């Protein structure tokens, strides 16, 4: 999930951040800051901080310690803050400013649990884009002698709208105005389909304009302007008109089409289909995790010096080297000593009898 690779910008050595670990007991008026050694690596989506920490000497269960990690924007709550012994000494919460707040538990009183190393990973990911679409149909009927008037209230701008009017008093030509749903859109397609008894006059042209405002009283577009030709494509024949506009901003696109009735002053009908679509970027989601590095490195095993035997002074070199030829003389001396002692005992006994 975290992509920390060749693009990681490692800050060599243990970077001493402005991050400070401070004790904030609920009943104390002072704060005991402690600098934390933090090594940071990051790329486009992930930030990883290796935090080596130790509690302040006066921090006690019930107190709060804070660790500033400005690289890790985004809130996270409910993770255990674990010492090098593997024991949780509190619950850590990360606020939107990147400050980790740790509420100490009773386990923090044990001297073995007052230091450790924590790896804080912050990963920014974006969810899949959302496709928003709109589809609607608008119908209009134009009757002999009909004169267009103002709308009664603003029309629904989330869908397409359409109305028609005679171009002159002879009622030999009709003008149809199609208004698309308000953008923004990546693409907007409008298809106009005049009903029988009339034909589209392509020689009169198909006009494509847009406006960002409407009159609140009449509902008409305010000061529409021609859409740039590079954003518009038009297909026209006597049976209908197709218009594509891309992209469309926060505006309402208006298409004007003229038709010629087979007979003057005829009742005419017209329908138009509107289809629009846009892709909205996914939400940015930041995930923060706290992973402890457990275990304390054991003390080095002491190295004992080798035992070296040295010969006693006064011994012949040959005895010092082998240690074997000294045994027979020592044995003979002991035998003679015992023999002498036995002879002395016999002499005392002889004298006593005499």
From TrEMBL:
Location of region: Disordered: 297-319
TM annotation in the entry: 326-345
PROSITE patterns, alphabetized: GRAM_POS_ANCHORING
Signal sequence residues: 1-28
Domain Gram-positive cocci surface proteins LPxTG: 319-354
Keywords tagged on the record: Cell wall, Membrane, Peptidoglycan-anchor, Secreted, Signal, Transmembrane, Transmembrane helix
Matching InterPro entries: Adhesion_dom_sf, LPXTG_anchor
Stated name of the protein: LPXTG-motif cell wall anchor domain-containing protein/MYXO-CTERM domain-containing protein
The organism of origin for this protein: Microbacterium enclense
Source lineage: Bacteria, Bacillati, Actinomycetota, Actinomycetes, Micrococcales
